[in-house]
Amino acid sequence: MAELKKCRICFTEEQQEEMIAPCGCKGSIKYVHKDCLTSWVTSSRKIRCALCSRTYEGVYLKQILPIWKWLMKHPRVILGITLECTITLMFMPSLKLLLSEVRLVNSFLKRACHYFVIGFISATTLAMNVDLFRSVSKYYRYTNLRIKMDLSRFQKRSIAPIEPIN
């Protein structure tokens, strides 16, 4: 009689979804659904079988780097943040000096200068926030847990031998 495949995670029998044998377990507990294994590894963050202690074949877990290590690999982001801070620190004192000098001139020029300064500061702040958001979103995408399954490593072991019926 043919061996009945049953997923050891969700305890259902083989349906339309392919069953794989990712570790060294034997017998009725060796098969799991691909989706069940993916969700199990995602939630537990472990790539070793709890029963046989072997690493799941073909399952790779991306490691999370601290933000400073990630920044060391991306010097362009560090350069951008440093440049934005430097420009801001150099621009603010010159704006203060400009506004103090405008007091001596007529009110129209004073108002125009105030609007220009407020608009420039707003545009600079917006550009810095957009750039910071882009940098942080790259880090977030990088650290998001990714599981890669190499299904070619499962093919030889996932097909259960069919015994002839006597």
TrEMBL record:
RING-CH-type domain boundaries: 1-59
Keyword Transmembrane helix: yes
GO molecular function, one term: zinc ion binding
Annotated compartments: Membrane
Membrane topology: Multi-pass membrane protein
Cellular compartments per GO CC: membrane
Keywords per UniProt: Membrane, Metal-binding, Transferase, Transmembrane, Transmembrane helix, Ubl conjugation pathway, Zinc, Zinc-finger
Domain named RING-type: residues: 7-53
Gene3D superfamilies: Zinc/RING finger domain, C3HC4 (zinc finger)
CDD domains assigned: RING_CH-C4HC3_MARCH
SMART domains: RINGv
Pfam families listed in its UniProt record: RINGv
Main location: membrane
SUPFAM superfamilies (alphabetical): RING/U-box
InterPro entries: Znf_RING, Znf_RING-CH, Znf_RING/FYVE/PHD
PANTHER family noted in UniProt: E3 UBIQUITIN-PROTEIN LIGASE MARCH 2/3 FAMILY MEMBER (PTHR46065), FI20425P1 (PTHR46065:SF3)
Name under which the protein is recorded: E3 ubiquitin-protein ligase MARCH1-like isoform X2
